[in-house]
Write a structure and sequence with these properties.
The structure holds two protein chains of two kinds. Helices cover 24% and strands 31% of the residues of chain A. Chain A is α/β, with parallel strands linked by helices. Chain A is globular, with a radius of gyration of 16 Å. By secondary structure, chain B is of the alpha/beta class. Chain B has one domain (5-245): TIM Barrel, CATH 3.20.20. Chain B is 37% helix and 23% strand. Chain B has an eight-stranded parallel barrel with strand order 1-3-4-5-6-9-10-11, surrounded by seven helices. In chain B, strand 10, helix 8 (209-218) and strand 11 (222-225) form a beta-alpha-beta unit. Classes of the chains: A alpha/beta, B alpha/beta. The interface between A and B is medium-sized, with 34 and 31 residues. Chain B: It is an enzyme of class 4 (lyase). Chain B: InterPro entries: Aldolase_TIM, His_biosynth, HisF, IGPS_HisA/HisF, RibuloseP-bd_barrel.
């Protein structure tokens, strides 16, 4: 992790979520979070983090209003490492059926749908084991099954199963982490998952440091 | 299936823990952040802070507490006590809290629950209910103002209404059992768990891991711990290991 010390990570602040915990957790792992209320603020950063809570339509509207939609697409295509967290992961996908039909960023193929929890309670709130589907730099050093903290009622359904990095179970087995090239997403909250979550965030900073891209506006 | 949660609860007055704590190796037994950090490392799944500061400066003390906690605690935490408006809630959420707990103010104006749920989402809204069994038995009276005031509401009915209005979780305290360490009120828990679909946090009466196991068996998703931790009777780590040994599905403590 030492190589990632001071790595600047742009945290997209589209005004709907609480970024304090995420930025504090990034600082704790040694990287430097840069809170961005507009794309210009991300100048010089090595990676992007897209957090988000609340509804999908609100999240996409907020991204659009703050000018991030096209910016994120462009940076993702330019291979800048991007990590979506919770709603941020869901917004990476093509569309969501939450409160009608809303278009997402479309960086990953697939849709967002309600969690089919069966007899379990919804929203799914709490610590659930995530089983990693394959090795990844993002999950380096974590147990094969790692408890992570989840808060959600919707799940992403990747169109390409190859994108699935980890699954968890709550009434059904759902996709809890995704990875496709430079695009990463986690349904859980690493910033609230104690030491395991901090490790994952540190790994992401490590990925960014290794890629060594600098966002130019 | 989420793990059953073990949640230490700290009462905080003007930034200091109110109840006595007997950990000998703590530098400052009155600092909620230091204590919470210990709980985080010990395997606490969440932490609840109840700000009992009874002054006009209340709102700022809760925000300051949330901010200090968020700097060093990386498990979810809830701030309760004196939240009277969505604006109060916004302050502590912005400072890094994950959820806010409302109690008296929601009883006084139930729309507070829906206004907060609309603005922040149900997952942020914990309805704290302090209940005492009525003399007739089988029903429970809701108390407010820290257990001093009868509300005239029946607890199970109130819980139903609260969930209908958007509460995402119920922190259910049995006043009859609070501080007694004789076990949770399982009848109350059972009635609440049957009435609503949202998670129930059992509170009041925990004296042993067996009590907690019984609460989970009865339908609680989480168990709040106060006096047995604060009195130094046990630690989060010991409790979780005991629960694992009892076959309860709790998050193992990371190696």
């Amino acid at each position: 992790m030492s190589s990632s010390v001071g790595t600047k990570i742009a945290v997209v602040d589209h005004g709907t979520g609480n970024l304090t915990s995420l930025t504090r957790a990034l600082s704790k792992t040694g990287s430097t979070p840069v809170r961005c209320t507009s794309p210009a603020d991300a100048e010089g950063c090595a990676a992007l983090m897209l957090p988000g809570v609340g509804s999908f339509p609100n999240g996409m509207a907020a991204l659009s209003a703050s000018g991030f939609t096209e910016f994120l697409k462009k940076q993702a295509h330019d291979r800048v490492p991007l990590l979506g967290v919770c709603l941020g992961m869901q917004m990476l996908f093509g569309r969501s059926g939450e409160q009608g039909d809303t278009e997402g960023l479309g960086l990953l193929d697939g849709t967002v749908r309600p969690l089919d929890a069966g007899n379990e309670r919804v929203p799914h709130i709490g610590w659930s084991l995530v089983q990693w589907s394959r090795p990844s730099q993002l999950t380096a050093g974590l147990e094969a099954e790692t408890a992570m903290y989840h808060v959600h009622s919707f799940v992403a359904e990747p169109g390409d199963r190859e994108d699935v990095l980890g699954t968890a179970s709550h009434g059904e087995v759902f996709t809890s982490a995704v990875e496709r090239e430079n695009i990463y997403g986690v349904q859980f909250h690493p910033e609230k998952s104690s030491d395991a979550g901090l490790r994952l965030l540190g790994n992401f900073a490590g990925i960014a440091a290794a890629v060594d891209k600098k966002i130019a506006i | 299936m989420a793990f059953k949660r073990v949640i230490p609860c700290l009462d905080v007055d003007n930034g200091r823990v109110v109840k006595g704590i007997n950990f000998l190796d703590l530098r400052d037994a009155g600092d909620p952040v230091e204590l919470a950090e210990r709980y985080d490392h010990g395997g606490a799944d969440e932490i609840v802070f109840l700000d009992v500061t009874a002054t006009s400066s209340h709102r700022s003390t809760a925000v300051e507490l949330a901010s200090r906690v968020a700097e060093r605690i990386f498990v979810p935490f809830t701030i309760g006590g004196g939240i009277r408006s969505p604006e109060d809630a916004q302050g502590v959420l912005d400072a890094g809290a994950d959820k806010v707990a409302v109690n008296s103010a929601a009883v006084a104006d139930p729309t507070l629950i829906s206004r907060m749920a609309d603005r922040f989402g149900s997952q942020c809204v914990v309805l704290a209910v302090d209940a005492r069994e009525r003399a007739s038995g089988g029903s429970w009276e809701v108390f407010t103002a820290g257990g001093r005031k009868e509300s005239g509401r029946e607890a199970i009915e109130w819980i139903r209404e609260g969930v209908r209005l958007g509460a995402g979780e119920i922190l259910l305290t049995s006043m009859d059992r609070d501080g007694t360490q004789v076990g949770y009120d399982l009848d109350l828990l059972n009635a609440a768990a049957k009435a609503v679909e949202v998670p129930i946090i059992a509170s009041g009466g925990a004296g042993s891991p067996q009590h907690m196991a019984a609460a989970f068996e009865t339908g609680a998703d989480a168990a709040l711990l106060a006096s047995i931790l604060h009195d130094g009777v046990t630690t989060v780590e010991t409790v979780k290991n005991a629960l694992l040994a009892l076959g309860v599905d709790v998050r193992p403590i990371a190696a």
